[in-house]
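User: Reviewer 2 asked us to show a designed sequence for the structure in our supplementary figure. I'm pasting the structure tokens here. Could you produce the per-position amino acids so we can include them in the response letter?
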């Protein structure tokens, strides 16, 4: 047996797992298409009300910040999908009585959750692309969409949202009903996306804030990834790794606590 066999087997198993998780996610979104479409339409309607209502009240202010508003809603939708899907997935698995089966998976519960998170990130980019196309078609705003810049910045920015999702997923395993906390986090994300980090650099340490600022520069002003400040990019990497790592550690501790209490699969 060659040394590389176990690693190749692990890769094959992960690919099979990812394919199954993606297929299940697709089936659920198609089966509950009304809920899928409603979540997208709700954010688009909120965006339309803000832009068209704002044009009536302060047309110059909306014109000056339109590209930033579009990028902000684009990021807000992706962040919401990225953090909320994991928590809702775990809550639904508990309701269906299949969470304990996932915990006993030969792939390991951590790998299952990591693959679910990866699939959720891909779904969030899909939602974001659809909403971005609608917003650009509605407003006629011109944005730079260089994938070599937008994709890395988007992934690093969403990593902090995923860390929050891990923490909420762990809390959902222990406390089961945390819908009110979801709403608070949703409001917090709206504020974090719009924070003026240039005026108060300490705000760059908060989730989404620095990534939102860099995405606005990249997509609104056409600044390439390699032309962005090196210090900001390094800080974005550190905050992404920090929130993602802390969120995952908290999730693991809370899932062990739920298992210790014997409430892992209960709802």
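Assistant: Here is a per-position design you can include in the supplement:
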């Amino acid at each position: 047996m060659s040394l590389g066999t176990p690693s190749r087997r692990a890769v094959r198993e992960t690919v099979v797992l990812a394919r199954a998780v993606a297929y299940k996610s697709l089936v659920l979104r198609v089966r509950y298409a009304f809920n899928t479409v409603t979540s997208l339409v709700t954010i688009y309607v909120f965006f339309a009300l803000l832009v068209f209502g704002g044009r009536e009240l302060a047309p110059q202010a909306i014109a000056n910040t339109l590209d930033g508003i579009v990028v902000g809603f684009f990021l807000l939708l992706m962040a919401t999908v990225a953090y909320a899907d994991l928590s809702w997935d775990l809550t639904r698995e508990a309701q269906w009585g299949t969470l304990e089966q996932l915990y006993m998976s030969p792939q390991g519960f951590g790998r299952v959750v990591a693959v679910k998170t990866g699939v959720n990130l891909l779904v969030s980019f899909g939602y974001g692309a659809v909403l971005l196309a609608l917003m650009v078609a509605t407003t006629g705003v011109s944005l730079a969409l260089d994938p070599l810049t937008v994709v890395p910045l988007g992934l690093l920015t969403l990593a902090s949202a995923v860390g929050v999702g891990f923490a909420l997923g762990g809390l959902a395993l222990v406390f089961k009903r945390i819908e009110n906390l979801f709403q608070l986090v949703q409001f917090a994300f709206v504020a974090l996306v719009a924070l003026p980090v240039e005026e108060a650099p300490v705000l760059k340490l908060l989730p989404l804030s620095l990534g939102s600022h860099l995405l606005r520069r990249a997509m609104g002003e056409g600044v390439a990834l390699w032309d962005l400040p090196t210090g900001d990019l390094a800080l974005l990497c550190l905050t992404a790794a920090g929130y993602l790592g802390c969120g995952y550690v908290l999730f693991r501790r809370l899932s062990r606590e739920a298992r210790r209490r014997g409430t892992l699969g209960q709802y």
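For the response letter, you might also mention the following. The chain has a mean pLDDT of 83. The first helix runs from residue 5 to 31.
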